[in-house]
Amino acid sequence: MSVWGVVLAGGGGTRFGGLKQFARLGGQSLLERVVSVALASCDGVVVVLPAGHDWNGPGIRATGGSTRAESVRAGLAALPGDASIVCITDAAHPLAGSVLYERVIGAVRAGADAALPGLPLTDAVKRVQMVNDEPHLLGVAGATTPAGGHVSAQMPMAFSLPVLLRAHREIADAVEDSAMVGAAGGRVVVVPGEPTNVHVTTPDELVVAQALLPLTH
Question: 3-class SS at 199?
């Protein structure tokens, strides 16, 4: 089975305050780090970039769309014809190690339609709504979700390419692709995630990633 990666780096970085995919971490940009690890586990990568931007690293280039789903579809359209498994990740997860790629790819090779890394939640989850630019708890009953039985989903995620393509044909958009595959009736499995696989969306989280960097080698 030919395995390809799609690295999403087409976002505008609204919460970060700029194009975070080109921010530096340990002497490399976040994008460079992610592509390097993806290439070590995949036969090739497609890099989805913002319109009007390019970079001089490896991989096939694709231009992102106005939504995450459109950017994924742009990346899928650029895959070679022999691809059968696709790993989708993004530049916001620069510390995901090769072990995570091996876990999710292995689960799809074993028959799952999709696989994602997950970390068990240890704190209760609260639902909030913004009132006058301040977060307020949403309701009283049901405002709290117990931590037990829930995981925090990480990247990379691996998919059977035919199943993922079918899900994108049937469903217009979703928060991420495993939700689309699940909604389309696919079997999604969870493999162990990594505590150091921080999701960089703000400058403060980049500082956290910098502090965690020595623990990932």
Answer: coil
